[in-house]
Known about the structure:
Blueprint: H1 2-23, H2 44-58, E1 63-74, E2 77-89, E3 92-99, H3 102-107, E4 112-118, E5 121-125, H4 128-131, E6 139-143, H5 148-159, H6 166-174, E7 180-187, E8 190-200, H7 210-221, E9 226-233, E10 239-245, E11 253-264, E12 278-280, H8 281-285
Amino acid sequence: MRHFRTLAAATTILAAAGLAACDGPKPASSTSNAAASSAASVPMVSVADAMSQTTKATSQYTSVKLKLSEKVNAQGQDVDVTGSGTVSWQPVAMDMTMTVPGLSAEFGGDGSIRTLMSGTTMYMNMGDAAAAKSGGKHWMKLDLTSLGTAGQALADQMNSSSGNDPATQLKLFTSSPDIKRVGQESVNGVQSTHYTGTVDLTKLAAQQDASLKSLLTQSTKLGLSSMNLDLWVTDKGLPVRIHESTPATATTKFDVTVDYSDYSTTPVTVTAPPANDTNDLGAMLKGMPGTPK
Length: 293
């Protein structure tokens, strides 16, 4: 989920930067659907076994459909992002449409951005109003490696499985002794078991698992020491919802929910938009302050 957050932030920033390059400078909860049946905890071994079974079941798949809802507060700014689409992690590819209402006032339209990604290349489409500010072309293309070291780091992060694969996200649950079973609930019409808990990220710092270390590193950069987690799992052991939120004391606050469906072993296929309807954002950004020459 942290990579969806990274993608949302990167897409918003890069799309805005691309339009600025074309058009000149611009001025600067609870997520369950039903009441829990019982809040009594069960023996931790039962929960641990359930988490292990869920990780095994999820790791058999390589792509999934998802819907996300995210609220972020950082440096006094509030950002809301919603989105839906399909993502695969072997190989890494995605086709998502995200809506960032704050973009609509600046660039027109409804603030939605369709984002395609394959390997290190992203394509972004913000609609007709934005296209009118970029020579009539609807798509912006960016090979992240064209942004130098920072772009390569972002590409490496996006291409790591540690944020796209739900099985990796589950390692936060399996690594914590504080996860408890809440009860049976319905999520999007699917009967599921709800688990909840708080993960002490500092206690997990010694973990040797590479993908878990990647998740912890991203959290550390945000200054987080703990995370509130909720998980809803079907009787087949597949997550239908994962919810993460920061403690009230966190400097950077976020509350993100991802709903999963249609697990598959079929990778996402991304077809590049027509070249005559695409601007090369990497080339447009060259020469702008703060970008590699």
